[in-house]
Amino acid sequence: MSGMNRQGRPSSIETAVNDIEFSATHETFTGNRGLRLEEPLIYELDNPGACGVDLDEPDAFEPRLGGFERKGAIGLASLSEPDVMRHFVRLSRKNYSIDAGLYPLGSCTMKHNPRLNEKMARLPGFADVHPLQPQQTVEGAIELMAQLSHWLMELTGMQAVAMSPKAGAHGELCGMMAIRAALEARGEGASRTRVLVPESAHGTNPATAALIGYKVDEIPVKSNGRVDTEAFKAKLGPDVAAIMLTNPNTCGLFESDIIEIAAAVHEAGGYFYCDGANFNAIVGRVRPGDLGVDAMHINLHKTFSTPHGGGGPGAGPVVLSAALAPFAPRPYLVQTEEGARLIETAEASAADGTTPFGRMTAFHGQMGMYVRAFAYMLSHGSNGLRQVAEDAVLNANYVLASLRDELSAPFEGPCMHEALFDDRFLKGTGVETLDFAKAMIDEGYHPMTMYFPLVVHGAMLIEPTETESKQTLDQFIATLRDLARAAKANDISRFTGAPHYAPRHRLDETGAARNPVLRWQPTVPLKVAE
Ligand SMILES: *Cc1c(COP(=O)(O)O)cnc(C)c1O
Fold it and tell me: How far apart are the C-alpha atoms of 447 and 435, rounded to whole Å?
């Protein structure tokens, strides 16, 4: 290690690094490295004849499948119970997760998933319900949906909420379909064909507009990272259906002209779709309805701490203004004298005087996510939710202020909930954003969001969220400062080919994308059962 630029490291860490370097280069017989275990595919572990269960041979019986019953081997691996257990536990240990360490992905809002949420979601009355159960047998679940809906509308200042979309992008689709339905209802469905989207937008925004047949027209972003309001106004016309704007935007900045933008699009007869993925920065402080928003999705896995993946599909409810509320998809909730009821049929909507555009999903959405999000809301209360936003912004500004001199920030002034850096500080070092991010893996961190937003060269977007402690942030900041200094001191070996200490090193990502191997093939053909 001597001769490398590692000032400021405690010597115990120095020793640990030496140890890791030994294991990184020394080939072991098994391919394992200490506790870092190699794991083949479960099919490659196949041990014919082994079985994890002890079932009696079935009695002789006549198949009633008319000769269509399977004759060949099923092709599943045979393994004992401990072998199966070990396989999945070993795989799980290869995952980096929010429970293992800081996950600074900007825009993704990777917050801690409180264990209280998990406990509530496992209550049998919520965990074991079936979407085809009669409503009177799941009144508690429906009441929870009603209360969650109430608070989502309250926090956003909106009239209605569509609960069924399964993610942010799905919510965007739902909101834009409600906008299209509203335009069709006033006879402007065919004439309004253009959707305005800032060039800093998340890719799902233009993709959503294009998917339902709109022409996407890009609005330029000014050098201060905000939408160019004059350029936006110049693009307005009788063929504009909507603007899709993210606020705070993907540069981590508040769109200060948002009220003016909303008024201008309304005056031109269009609607205002707000991408609410960054709602966690303003929850409890700003109600998007007050800003003139007509539709906004809320990623429960971002703002309201439900897990990203791993726990099954997510939830991206969409809040709607009074103008769009009648077009919200079925099923939706109404309050009756007997409590909340789900409206599920066209007849029921007709009786109710609404004209839903259709359905987003077969059923009602993700009960497990609703319970978690609601538990998070209740455990914080309104003051607590406001503090969530404040702490998220404080943490991001702490990161920005602590790194601004060693890295380089593209915009002046403070940020909202995420700190954005560009690659000017790496100029002339031979190190690029990608190398820098991969070197972070060697330091035990998941990299930040890279190369997004596209309007910033070599972007590195860091979102600490409110759930990280000052100690954790200090360690992270010190690590990035150390890496930045190493890059500037031409300590190239820390970057090229990194990660060195991960189970796999630099992958051929282009090769993997161009020639994906998606299917395991047996090396020996499966035997046909007798
Ligand atoms: C996360 C995100 C989305 C998409 O949300 P998903 O839930 O991942 O579909 C859209 N826009 C922005 C700005 C985001 O950060």
Answer: 10
Q: Are 270 and 236 in contact (CB under 8 A)?
A: yes
Q: Which structural domains are found in the chain, ordered by start?
A: 1-34 (no CATH), 39-52+77-94 (no CATH), 117-375 (3.40.640.10), 383-503 (3.90.1150.10)
Distance 355 CA to ligand 1 centre (A): 28
- What DSSP character marks residue 426? G
Q: Which of 284, 279, 280, 262 is nearest to 271 (CA)?
A: 262
- Centroid of ligand 1 to alpha carbon of 68 (angstroms): 46
Q: How far is the CA of 248 from the centre of ligand 1 (A)?
A: 13
pTM score, whole prediction:
0.89
Binding-site residues, ligand 1, Cβ < 6 A? 107-108, 167-169, 202, 204, 246, 250, 275, 277, 299, 314, 316
Model confidence over 164-189: pLDDT tens digits? 999 999 999 999 999 999 999 999 99
Query: Within a 10 A sphere around the Cβ of 94, how many other Cβ atoms?
Result: 13
d(CA 259, CA 250): 18
